[in-house]
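Fig. S4 source data, part A: sequence.
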Amino acid sequence: MDSFDYTTEIQVRFRDLDTLGHVNNAVYVTYLEQARVAFLEEVVGITPADAGIVVASLSVDYEQPVTTENTITVGLTVPMEEVGEHSFALRYEVFTEDNSRVATAESVQVAYDSENQTPRQIPEEWLNAVVAYRETSQNTT
């Protein structure tokens, strides 16, 4: 696996499988959401509901089926060159236990003022938290 800003393991459940015995395509979106929420909580120190973040776009490319109940790993990266005034991208890769990449994805999140129903500026402390986490992660490897 490449280096990521954050990784999380997710247990594949029997209920995630479709009639072909594969993890259903829609379930991958849930896996990405789980990784995104964990990243925001653990690295940035915010909960998406409290922070006012909405997903503006999401694309997923499926490379291989996941067919058994096992653990997958979702790695995500914040491409800092794609951080805008109101939005930021996340890139994801999904791997099985044998490190086979099974999917890639990208989402764009927008900082959102729910009271005024408008985009708002991304707080500097969010970006600082990502940079600090990267530096800490690099020093421990």
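Fig. S4 source data, part B ends here. The two ends are 14 Å apart (CA to CA).
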